[in-house]
Design brief:
With 49 residues, the protein is mainly beta. 0% of the residues lie in helices and 51% in strands.
């Protein structure tokens, strides 16, 4: 029996100084988001599920 997957982060929260802009992709191990730091640099952040 497989465990239910947790819901990905909603758009907009601040995590570690990064603001989530949008979900880029999702796969079996996690979700990748486009995020922005405090000085408007874009980065990718992976949330492992």
């Amino acid at each position: 029996m497989s465990k239910p997957k947790p819901a990905p982060l909603p758009a907009g929260p601040v995590v570690g100084g990064y603001t989530d802009i949008k979900k880029l992709t999702a796969g079996g191990f996690g979700v990748v988001y486009l995020a922005e730091d405090g000085v408007r640099h874009n980065d990718a952040i992976k949330e492992y599920l």
